[in-house]
Amino acid sequence: MIEARILLVDDEALNLEILLEYFEGETSLTPHTADNGEMAWQMLQAPDADYNIILLDRMMPGLDGIGLLRRIKEAPRLAGIPVIMQTAANSAAQIREGLEAGAYYYLTKPYRRDDLLAIVHAALADAEARNGLRRQLDQHIDSLQFLDSAEFSIRTIDEAGQLASFIAHACPDPATAVIGISELLINGIEHGNLGLSYAEKSMLKRDDGWRVEVDRRASLPENRDKQLRVSYQRESHQIVLRVADEGTGFNWRNFLEMDPERAFDPNGRGIALARMLSFSSIHYEGCGNVAIATIGFDASRQEP
User: Around Cβ 177, how many Cβ atoms within 10 Å?
Assistant: First the structure.
């Protein structure tokens, strides 16, 4: 379990008391509280501030949740901290506004302790996975920028992380590219080759059993020979990645955007984040078991 410092921001003293009770017994989480947006901002600005996650109330007087969120995402030192937005209403418009501002995880008040902890642990695990990928980048050599084409085959989640870090070093911005490449590879393995459904992953994420189940399925006789095939091609103006799994495909168009209805789930945002953060374009071929992603050599992001 990841050890983390969590900042709880809510202008209602009773809500903060309830949250602190919810986190009692969670030895891996150390909660800190702020009763308004400005106080939270000052705490985040402190030189020794080292928060791993923020649980943020949307509706507060003065600097509200959206305002604070925008400040956080504009600060390079803070932008990578995952933010869970608390809202009293399940409003698609409000959720979409929060998603656009950078809050990719949501809780609707009132919520159960189990729901809170599931989202917190999912957000922390996602952030740690991305940080781990960035750390792996240092293990590869800069000469990969001269790579013109390559073909790879992998089977496991660990191999996906290693290959994502390797390929990212051949891209213009490795730290950004590695996130999207990793998402495509992991999706191809877990959902494609291993047949893990969206609902099954949601349940496993809530029970902290996702990795155990993925490894179990990978060891089954019917899955041992399945490969995820990855091709890399450098063209004059872009890099093209092709990721092909052996699954039956999925309705990929539903996952290219951050859907407000999925904002409350512990999973389901990976492809949309990859498209927004890492790729110039992404689409799927066939039944949805072949992903084609491009990374342009300029800073623009142009969807076809």
Answer: 27
